[in-house]
Amino acid sequence: MSRFANKVALVTGAASGIGAAVTQQLIDDGATVVLFDLNAAAVESAATALGDKALAHAGDVTNEDDVKAAVDAAVAKFGKLDSAFNIAGLAKIGTITDGSVADWNATVSVVLGGTYLVTRYSALAMRAGGNGGAIVNVSSLNAHVPLYGGSSYAAAKAGVEAFTKNSARSPEQK
After folding, report:
1. What range does the domain containing 117 cover?
2. What is the C-alpha R_g of the chain?
3. Type and span of the H or E element at 133
4. What is the dihedral of CA 93, 98, 102, 108, to 10 degrees?
5. pLDDT more than 90, % of the chain
6. Does a structural domain hold residue 111?
């Protein structure tokens, strides 16, 4: 129970699936977690079930103000942010010729754009806190293996991998 003792984490997509499982494991390992999810009712229910080590924050990872508010809520309530887990995802399936441009944009916006925004504001909070931190970006096998009708999802997940490698470079590695 001590691996994440006294650590504060932000988890996107925390109301269900992988996000909920990561949140539960972090709490089991001693962390305090801000659950960030688009589904307000589900994230509130999930946080309530987890007790006083969890804080619900409903919002959209594609909305800069919502992301900033979630990070600010973590710092305001718990005094810091030590880690962020970018798990929120979306896959609007459609072939390149038959899928809609809106579905392409929605998928890329959540998967890649959301990862960018959460990483940006989490890194700024961690830097301001002076103690460093860690950001985990979840990709997919489909970043490497084609998914019929999933070009937007596969491209966005490949983008998450490239973004993660770039964001991990220190200023000394220019």
Report:
1. 8-169
2. 16
3. none
4. 50
5. 92
6. yes
CB 95 within 8 A of CB 41: no
**Domain CATH for 76:** 3.40.50.720
Within a domain: 122: yes
The more confidently predicted of residues 68 and 173 is 68
Among 123, 138, 105, CA closest to 168 = 123
**Backbone dihedral angles phi then psi of residue 138, each to the nearest 5 degrees:** -90, 125
Residue 58 has φ and ψ, to the nearest 5°, of -85, 135
Is 7 in contact with 82 (CB distance < 8 Å)? yes
d(C-alpha 6, C-alpha 142), whole Å? 35
List, by residue number, the catalytic residues: 153
- Type of residue found at 66: D
Order of strands across the sheet that contains 54-58: 54-58, 32-37, 8-12, 83-86, 134-137
Overall average pLDDT of the 130-139 stretch: 94
- When divided into structural domains, the chain yields a total of 1
**pTM over 0.85, yes/no:** yes
Give the H/E segment covering residue 163: helix 151-167
